[in-house]
Amino acid sequence: MAPLSVAEALDRVTKGLAPLEAERVALGEASGRVLAEDVAAQLTQPPFDASAMDGYAVRAADVAALPATLRVIGRSAAGAGFRGRVGPGEAVRIFTGAPVPEGADFIVIQENAEEAPGSVIVREAAGGSFIRPRGQDFSEGDILLTAGTRLGPRELMLAAAMNRADLPVRRKPRVAILATGNEVVPPGSELAADQIVSSVPIGLAALIARHGGEAMPLGIARDEPESIVTLARAGSAADILVTIGGASVGEYDLVATALKAEGLELDFWKIAMRPGKPLLFGRMGKQRVLGVPGNPVSALICAEVFLVPMLRKLLGAGERESHEPDAILGEALAANGPREHYMRALSEWREDGARVVTPLPSQDSSLVAALARADCLIVRPPNAPALPRGARVRIVPLDRG
Amino acid sequence: MAPLSVAEALDRVTKGLAPLEAERVALGEASGRVLAEDVAAQLTQPPFDASAMDGYAVRAADVAALPATLRVIGRSAAGAGFRGRVGPGEAVRIFTGAPVPEGADFIVIQENAEEAPGSVIVREAAGGSFIRPRGQDFSEGDILLTAGTRLGPRELMLAAAMNRADLPVRRKPRVAILATGNEVVPPGSELAADQIVSSVPIGLAALIARHGGEAMPLGIARDEPESIVTLARAGSAADILVTIGGASVGEYDLVATALKAEGLELDFWKIAMRPGKPLLFGRMGKQRVLGVPGNPVSALICAEVFLVPMLRKLLGAGERESHEPDAILGEALAANGPREHYMRALSEWREDGARVVTPLPSQDSSLVAALARADCLIVRPPNAPALPRGARVRIVPLDRG
Fold first, then answer.
1. CA dist B84 to A321, A394, B76, B118, B129, Å?
2. A308 and A189 within one domain
3. How many structural domains compose chain A?
4. Residues of the domain holding B141
5. Do B196 and A371 count as a contact with CB atoms less than 8 A apart?
């Protein structure tokens, strides 16, 4: 089977993935969740014509000629409006956010007024009426938040202002993580000679959580079908099963063989991508199975490129928007081979804000420290020609922390 | 007291804030936390010269002339190295990541070799030795993660690869949130005529969590000193107390008065900023008190500008890096008044990647829906001159979700 292009592989792994069911969560729990439905305001804001300033509510006609002395007949505060009516020659002391009393159509701001016993002397009345009309912000029934929106501080504040106590959000996609390898041990272990530390599950779990999923770490299977099957079954409730590495003999042969007995229908297992050539993908009942390389750098880049878009589809979040302009090459690049290459790179910013990117000296996919140091990936399409310093290249920025 | 400039106010609110104590957390709990100490590798990676490919470990001298037939004397897999030595005319079957056996100094990749019973025929031997030297990634004792680093997927994967099971991180800054107002009720309430919904605490809590803090919502105090004091005391364990709004009569008078009886030393309460003019700041014992306006837009912008830098100081995270280039004005702007203005704006991106920003039509600070819709703030310094369309302006991008 010829290796698939990254675009074709991405198409296959996301095809048919529909948004998960909705669930209601309280606003305080909803940060980072994705809206499952459009959400309408349950009130009109402001619910009445409101004062935009501290001052006096008056009739504009009474302050056309200045100075003017008006009789203060009451007080309108937020939560305690004035129930009467402002007549000619009258004023009501008013505070920001308070309802403008009937009859009044103008706010004299505090700085332009001088209090006197039972009255107010208006010296100036410029700069607009200082009235926020009813519904200036929004009206009951307005759809202000739409399905697919990821909820952050501002969206949640708006939802509260719309008088929603909870919101319909997509269930978090569950992603089971199954590491493999007789030689692989958890971090913090006392290491025997040939053992290596399992680092991919920790990185994937953080990536999954960051993109709105729920990681289910299944542990490390031995390179034996029974061990792999036992752990995979523990993750059967997951929407996606991510396997890491495969076996000492031919990556994925062992994982694919073991899971085929469990019903895995293999879709592909080779892609024209660097790092990350061996990528397994298939379906096991309703579950999608994504097998990433055991190599940590390849695993994390494959997860960025394939797993994150799968999560977005399950969340109904649409495609990732990127307005990142092409970056400028800080050094010349050789022609690329037949595999799409994701080069780890460091950026500097020019005076004019342009981003200049330089690949790290070694692109060996075993260098975990280099991946952590990088701040972006330069994407080189298959068979891309050599490029001089200063050429423009597409990049994928890598989030810090 | 003349209003303080934003820069001066920022200086005062962050002055003297030192990083909080360290605590150890397991890697699985450390995402988004900030490292309290430099962290050194506890092993060398790779711990031995390792094969970069599947193939055969041989002596380079034996494949100088091709084709060459070599006797296969064993097998080196990850986790199960070959214990013997590769002599002249000998080869060891080897897999990616496995130790290169003694005597061998070259890997013939699988594609260039042809298996025969007990032997291998090498047809080609080009493209480098395919050996990853011991310590190519990092060596024991190397400091690979430094204090102040925010931990994300890549940093955590690296920490695991360094064989750390847990990490020293800063305790999360605790931020108590105290809303005020007789008229203010929690979201989801049945609203009486003059009541308004409390939306700021929800927005602040999400913002605080996003920036590594722990929000402690204290509820809504009535506009009475006893009520404010009772709630403030419930938040006495917080590093920062944020109060929202103040009172119907002169914002902050009531909060400041109530908290002065509790030991509040007021530093300032007016800043030359729009939105957000009334900003209260002071100290109450070890606790910092930040009073933001009751108006949701002002409150959230004040929190972005002042509270986030306070959190970063408590986390030892350094100043926020921004490489955001100046944006291009999509329409002309009038001259600014004496207050630094944070204008809500929408962006479009030009072909060349430049960001063109246009202020939303109304900059009224009561418009919560407009704040949610904006994707950046245009920062206008005090008394900035009018600017034509196409001029460059500083912006603060607003995170989505």
1. 54, 48, 10, 17, 20
2. yes
3. 4
4. 22-45+137-170
5. no
